[in-house]
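thought: fold this chain, then report.
action: predict
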Amino acid sequence: MTVSIAHLGPVGTYTEQAALAYASWLHQQTRQETILCPYPSIASTLRAVAQAQAELAVVPVENSIEGSVAVTLDTLWQLDTLQIQLALVLPIAHALLSHAQTLDDIQNVYSHPQALAQCQGWLEQFLPRVHLISTNSTTEALQQLEQDVKAGAISSLRASQLYNLPILASGINDYPDNCTRFWVLSQDCSQSSYHLASQNNSHTSLAFSLPANVPGALVKPLQVFAQRGINLSRIESRPTKRSLGEYLYFIDLEADINSSAVQSALVELTAQTEILKSFGSYNILGMRD
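observation:
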């Protein structure tokens, strides 16, 4: 059976690059064949798996420069049925692609908001007067560049080859150590061939809401982990979208959910939270660009 992997398209996005790297790794582990299925947004990528249109989704969750990808967290909370199978870390190197002859000819620059933000300093220094236009992905606007020689797009070196576009500037992200973490998610199908069970997962991801916004409401849940010596590698708040000042909290633990310490913590945490969701335990793989 061929495993379908949903990802943010069109062809040439960093997410597709991560999905290809994962597909290669999965084939090495299981000899499993895969097919990549591009979707127009991160939310639709996740919904494809929740609605059984695809078996796996690869989505960005955090960048080393710009932090968390909000739409991934928000959609994961809303869907409530997906589990993280693996995390991938991919180096990100941005380039400005354009048919323009010089930077002075550029009037508009297109890209995903994360890519624009990751190159903000470079854009302010070299293209301070251009219009920055957000797109659903780093490759969405590439096919328009041939018709508009005064436009540029921030994308990857790989995309320049795929779309046969000149590179006007490369290495334009503000910090050289630019990495994005992706999650590989599926429905909770532990018997599936692409689910590689492990007794030693390094991380667990949870999210919870609080019953009331009162002093100490967040401290108590965090103490549950501190008292058991469980380290938190990430904590992120997102609006509940119910009322101003109400938040959801996403946390990553450096521990396996099946450990006795985490199991004990979850029992206590259930009593201190309004809603508690577990997105599973997983390991993290570093991928080469």
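thought: worth noting. The two ends are 28 Å apart (CA to CA).
final: tokens above.
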